[in-house]
Amino acid sequence: MARNNKPFWESITLDEFLNSEEYKKGQELSPAEFYQVWFNRMPYRPCYQKRNWIFAPFDGIITHIGKYKPDQDVFNVKGQSYTINQILDAEMKCSCYACGIFLTAFSVHLGRNPVTGILRKVNLLPCILTNNMYMDFAELGLLKDKKVYPDRYKFAYQNQRRLYEIYDTRNNIDVIVVAIADRNVDSLLDFKQEGDVVIKGTRFNFVCWGSYGLLVVPINRKGFELKPLVKDLDYVYAGQTAIFEVIS
User: Fold this and answer.
1) pLDDT tens digits, residue range 122-138?
2) pTM score of the predicted model
3) 244 close to 53: Cβ distance less than 8 angstroms
4) How many other CB atoms sit within 10 Å of the CB of residue 89?
5) Domain 14-247 has CATH 3.40.50.10190
6) Which candidate, 44, 19, 38, 50, places its Cα nearest to that of 241?
7) For the chain, domain boundaries
8) How much is the CA Rg of the chain, to the nearest whole Å?
């Protein structure tokens, strides 16, 4: 990984990722090696524990991070504008912290638990329907121009979407992860089921040919706030990069 002597919990810049051995190696492989082996890699990573940190659930590029009203504020997912309620297929009343992550083809597609707690819910939500374009257009804008072009996110007309709700027992908050796959996926691969105890940094799913992940923390309890530790267009690593600090 391209750390440049940074602590493991800090994000890296997109330029640092583009200059990393990880990215360069992926470019040097043949298409067969890339899609059959490299894309499906599941590297070992240590599980770091710090009570008031929420780690990235996926590797990839931060597309947005902030606080949103559930039925008013909108953000872009694959070329379409959504509210929190629309992306969660819910009717939440409270504002939420949210962070979007674009999984590039060069990213590890292994999802890791952002917190330690209990996996209370696993829901297969209705597919997200977008225009029939492939993720390569959006990826080209991010990796080459280092810009987010909303129109280029209109790929993969039918995208499987699954919601994972974790109760963070250490911070007494609910953490929701949404994994959104690409059109070539029959199903997202889960390693955990409802009721399981999950440990921060351990794997919970694999996003086959996937493209997008969203982390949502509802502000449904008093006495806490989240401090963002990354910014738009940073590159993050699942189970290692801290994206929020819980302030009690």
Assistant:
1) 998 877 765 545 566 66
2) 0.86
3) yes
4) 12
5) no
6) 50
7) 14-247
8) 17
